[in-house]
Amino acid sequence: MATTADRKEYPISMRLPESDVAMIDRAATLRGRSRTDFVRDAAVRAAEEVVMENRLIRMSPEGFAEFIDVLSRPAAPVSEMVDLAQRPAPWEPGYVAKR
C-alpha cells in the first residue's frame, strides 16, 4: 500500500504583464538568481514586513514606564552624525571626497 508524503512545496501561479516579467527577470539576473528564487524572496520579505508592522508588543506596566522615561529624555548628539550633517553633499560646492 502506498503512503502519501506530506507536501513540502506549494505552487503559486500568477498572471503578469510582460513588462513586469521583464523587470523581474532583469533584477533577478543582476542578483544572479532565478526568477522563482527572486520572486519568492521578495514575496517572503514583503510578507515578513507586514507581519512585523502589525505585531503586538506587550510589556509590563513597569517596563512601559521605563520605556516612556527613556523616550522622554533629551536626545544626546552623536558627534559622527553632526559631522555628517554639516558636510557638503557630493553635488554641492565645497564637497571633498574623504578617503
TrEMBL record:
A Gene Ontology biological process term: regulation of DNA-templated transcription
Swiss-Prot/TrEMBL keywords: DNA-binding, Repressor, Toxin-antitoxin system, Transcription, Transcription regulation
Keyword Repressor annotated: yes
Molecular function via GO: DNA binding
Keyword Repeat found: no
Superkingdom assignment: Bacteria
PANTHER family noted in UniProt: COPG FAMILY HELIX-TURN-HELIX PROTEIN-RELATED-RELATED (PTHR35401), CYTOPLASMIC PROTEIN (PTHR35401:SF1)
Similarity comment: Belongs to the TacA antitoxin family.
Protein name: DUF1778 domain-containing protein
